[in-house]
Amino acid sequence: MARIMLTGGAGFIGSHTAVVLLERGYDIVLLDDFSNAARDVPDRLRQITGIAMPVIEADIRDPEAMRAAFAAFPVDAVVHFAAKKAVGESEADPLLYFDVNILGTIRLLAAMRDAGVGRLVFSSSATVYGEPDTCPISETASLRVTNVYGRTKMVMEGMIEDLSRTGVLAASAILRYFNPVGAHPSGLIGENPRGVPANLMPYLCQVAAGQRPYLTVFGNDYPTHDGTGVRDFIHVMDLAEAHAAAVDRILAQDGGFTVNLGTGTGYSVLDLVHAFKAATGIDVPYQVGPRRPGDVAACYADPGLAASLLGWRASRGVQDMCRDAWRWQSRH
Ligand SMILES: NC(=O)c1ccc[n+]([C@@H]2O[C@H](COP(=O)([O-])OP(=O)(O)OC[C@H]3O[C@@H](n4cnc5c(N)ncnc54)[C@H](O)[C@@H]3O)[C@@H](O)[C@H]2O)c1
Predict the structure, then answer these.
(1) Its Enzyme Commission number (predicted)?
(2) Per-residue pLDDT tens digits for 132-173
(3) Whether the CB of 83 sits within 6 Å of ligand 1
(4) Residue 96 within any structural domain of the chain
(5) Those residues with Cβ within 8 angstroms of residue 311's Cβ, 6 or more apart along the chain or in another chain
């Protein structure tokens, strides 16, 4: 079976993908600088899968460390998760985001070229669509970034497309995630935000746990069924399975492609609050605040291309997402 390096493999989406790849028989090498991950994640992965994997503590921006990583562990492909991902922080410190996300990706791609590794799966984001004209959003929609984080994803997508076109990369998959939530059903791994969570589900879980008094709903006058913003929440295990399908494909077939990873169904903020109650029995208190600048009314994926290219569709529902997120939160 092939060996795959996961950069940022100790993070939220990387750790869940590691579980699925290990369970499907892939060997993995986990590379992370642990700037946004707990040090015991590799041990938890071993508890879930019964398999220990090599762990390299390295910064993707460090050329010598990356050269040494590929020399020590020859791999067939890389899944590149390592990045900074907070929109607010990216607006406050754009150069940090250019450095970690863009320069880090250049250094990784150069180390891959030098090591003769030409197959890549890349974590992109629906953020690249900005304010879409229509929903569901297909991959052909215009890219209109509205913040620095989105800009870095758009630049990295362009670099990967150029490397595919010029043959430096033999195969590449650019995956545009919608709103990943939930956790592994074991409750052993999940999303671990530092400080005040920037995303809805971790915030909602912290309110449910009594760590915060209430959830602020940003705006209830959007043109949606209940006035609150509608998003395409996708269970992180569905996302992890999509990565495994993308890895299968880039190993089997040359060429580059870009796909949305979402369920295709939008849920509003209040739908999520109600689903959380149905799944856990807990009423989450909320207050309605003003709209947040830059938020769109509705954003959900057309998942058709992922289904046809990868043979993958999300199967878990919104109550699974709430139940698994809560299990992780309450055990943590
Ligand atoms: N979570 C989301 O909502 C979401 C949505 C769309 C796209 N994405 C993208 O998916 C990827 C993974 O996101 P996540 O939610 O798992 O984030 P995360 O922060 O949990 O995981 C990222 C991992 O990368 C590591 N890392 C950061 N900088 C590094 C560096 N310079 N060198 C080595 N490791 C480094 C961190 O320690 C962390 O373990 C990111 O590229 C993110 O932009 C995430």
Answers:
(1) 5.1.3.2
(2) 889 999 999 999 998 999 999 999 999 999 999 999 999 999
(3) yes
(4) yes
(5) 245
Q: How many folded domains does the chain comprise?
A: 1
Position 134 in a domain: yes
**CA distance linking residue 332 with residue 326, whole number of Å:** 10
Q: Does any ligand 1 atom lie closer than 6 A to the CB of residue 66?
A: no
pLDDT single digits (tens) 196-243: 898 999 999 999 999 999 999 999 999 999 999 999 999 999 999 999
Which residues participate in catalysis according to the annotation? Answer: 149
Query: How far is the C-alpha of 194 from the C-alpha of 180, rounded, in Å?
Result: 17
CATH of residue 18: 3.40.50.720
Q: Is 293 a domain residue? A: no
Q: With a cut of 90, say whether residue 293 has pLDDT above it.
A: no
| 208 within 8 A of 329, measured Cβ to Cβ | yes
Q: Are strands 233-235 and 119-125 parallel, antiparallel or unpaired?
A: unpaired
CA distance 208 to 3: 40
Domain that holds residue 256: 3-181+233-262
| Whole-number percent of the chain with pLDDT over 90 | 93
